[in-house]
Amino acid sequence: MTAxxxxxxxxxxxxxxxxxxxxxxAEGLQKRYGAIHAVRGVxxxxxxxEALALCGENGAGKSTIFKILAGEVAPxxxxxxxxxxxxxxxxxxxxxxxxxxxxYQEFNILPNASVAENVYLGRMERFCRAGIIKxxxxxxxxxxxxxxxxxxxxxxxxxxxxxxxxxxxVELARALSTRPRVLLLDEITASLDHDDAEILHRLMDxxxxxxxxxxxxxxRLQEIFNNCTTVEVMKDGAHVTTLPVGELDEDxxxxxxxxREIGAWQRGDRDETAPVMLELVNLSGRGFDDVSFKxxxxxxxxxxxxxxxxxxxxxxxxxxxxxVKSGEIQLGSAPYRGRSIVDAMNAGIAMVxxxxxxxxxxxxxxxxxxxxxxxxxxxxxxxxxxxGAEARAARDGMELFRIxxxxxxxxxxxxxxxxxxxxxxxxxxxxxxxxMLLNNPTRGVDVGVKFEIYELLQKLRGERNLAVxxxxxxxxxxxxxxxxxxxxxxxxxxxxxxxxxxxxTNLINAML
Length: 512
Ligand SMILES: Nc1ncnc2c1ncn2[C@@H]1O[C@H](COP(=O)(O)OP(=O)(O)OP(=O)(O)O)[C@@H](O)[C@H]1O
Prior knowledge:
six-stranded mixed sheet; Rossmann fold; ATP binding; 512 residues; D-ribose transporter ATP-binding protein; binds adenosine-5'-triphosphate; 3 domains; alpha/beta; ATP-binding; P-loop_NTPase; single chain; ABC_transporter-like_ATP-bd
């Protein structure tokens, strides 16, 4: 279940007008990165009690504005005030000191240090006496803070032993421990599981009630309607409009963001008698037991489960990242005994992993290198016919996914978050797979590109007989894309749904 699904019933927060004083005001912000004009004269106003969602396509300039406000990036021009006092922080520490804290889209942690050290990163001096760290004081302070926020993490645990969601919650605790007057949250829910997203949204409500302001970025639009009060839409670095959430619906907001209406989604027909591409027969592995289901050619089968259900592990086991304990995997009706990623790739299996930062991309390298990395063989199809070189693959991938970058020689780390995700997708699509394993394929991707990816999957499914096994935490996506949904609960299959039976209520009941 997604954060979106979990919060569907929540009433929208108070409309604009009933807010307190202006906390943060930015006017005429400008920022260029070489030839890219990332922010073009944008203004932002955040009042006490307001949660302002900054909306726009991938690369619209949202993170750049956040980084300017957080003291991470210096604007080329513009005026910012915090409670009427000029605010031009030259470092993140200066912004935090003045009352503006940020949780970044990417992970910003020390993996080998404890949770407590990560909470007080850069502010450990308060626990030092005569140059010696008072560890009991540090752990006690972190335990008190985490307990007060309702974040269930052991302050003594090593950060890397935590799930990505728990790590992100520690980053949130770090930001909240500074008692910010304005909190910036950049796509934080892309890393959070359902329970943690609920805690986050409760904390946002509390913070607003205490008179703080929030700036929020998320590509899950339902989340914006449930948890934000106001929307600022940007396009290509420029201001489009500012509106109360009550005056918008999802279709209108999407259209404002991408500059065109996004059509209703039409699921294509599937052939229920097509040959089976993948079959799991009583498969057991780490985190799941006795799982059986089939994926036919041209079919999208989705594994839906709560965090920790075992759905991720099933995908990883098919791809050879996790070992098989017992049972069998069949690929194209023959037993598949591949036990490594290389075996899987040679067998025509591709996988888009969940954590792009950890598992997917080599950040300092350029797009060409990252996309070319996975081109093992080229049978040639569609836009890739007769392609041979990694440069060609990168160009095709960039075009297919409309990756916003100057050229294929752009380093991945200079891309916006959504464009990084597109590079990851391109990297695997250019391998011409027979079976695509997708774990949350549109995480961090804007609403326009989401639809492009859906259309591309639809096309490959129909024209290339691509079989897709997906796991997704985005309920709207599961319902839109899947021919069959296999719900996973506590590592076992709890239901199989097809056609009309794929409804949110049915799926959630089977997942819980
Ligand atoms: N350090 C950098 N060097 C060069 N270009 C950059 C850098 N950071 C961002 N850009 C470019 O500036 C533009 C705006 O990027 P930004 O990250 O602000 O977008 P965004 O709206 O947050 O996108 P997303 O939704 O994908 O996270 C993009 O074209 C991006 O490639």
